[in-house]
Amino acid sequence: MNIFKKYPFLIAEISFNFYDLAQKDESSYLDVARLLIKKAKECSINAVDFHVGDSEVLHCNFEEDSLDMEDQLSYEDYIQLATCCKEAGLIFIITPSDFKDVDNLDKYVDAYKISASDLTNLPFIRYISTKKKPIILSTASATLKEIKDAINAIEDESNFKIALMHSVLSYPTQLEDANLLMIKDLADSFSDYDIGYCDYTIPDRNMFVLTTAYNYGAGILEKHFTIDKSLKGHEFAMDEEDVYIFRLNASVLSKIKGFKNKQPLICESFSRRNVRKSIVAKKDIKKGETIKLSDIEFKRPGLGIPPSETDNIVGKVANCNIKKGCLLNHNLIS
Q: I want to staple 167 with a disulfide (CB 3.0 to 4.6 A). Which of 140, 154, 259, 278 is the partner?
């Protein structure tokens, strides 16, 4: 099932990156959040994700002095951001921290993301599920049983679509810890659900990690989004150029993946006919002669009887004189 209409579906996790950007430029938090939505739209991102509410950890650099930081945006601000997303044609996703976040913003939310910190918070998950919206479930640091329990909690209250996101609870995630094969394990273990990936690795110039995740079957991809990767804590975020590179990579992958079932392709028709070989007379064969293996050879093009039928041809009788080099066909022999 598709939780969204088009894949790869790219989510910009804006979260609290706009705090640092606003402080750097001495702008308002709301204005910078609006700017990031605008930039996300311009580079073909499909959705934005905001972490809403008070939390023990809000800053993406996770330093001690940021652990008690409060959300600087009000619910009214988030309603304005939801309106900006709607006008831009972007999906508005929130990762709520508390029940009140859900109650105050549900009318404006297109989908919910449940953070890894709430994966085992089944009462909270059930409550979000009563809102009957699509749910994106982060599986960072989770066991298969914990994921199953969370899914059951959702489905106890809702039949809406669910996406499971592989991610690693380490910021930034080292390449050797990305474990992208877990995407395939999630797909095998939960085949009825959409599978995605939240990427916290530092992006390389070719966006290799995010591209590989898509190639491994992650249809929904989320990554922190910024317009200044030089800021501390923003180094594992993607910027506009990174998005362009990923989109180009994904476009190429979509073209070259093709069909799973092995079969001849239309583009191979001419070559298949002309490159393959047929059974031909190696010498003149007179009418009435029994055809021996020494009487035939194999040459291009593949317009006649294929070599795979040699055993059916040897021992047959020529119905007429067959000249050397002639393609054998079933009318010439019996």
A: 140
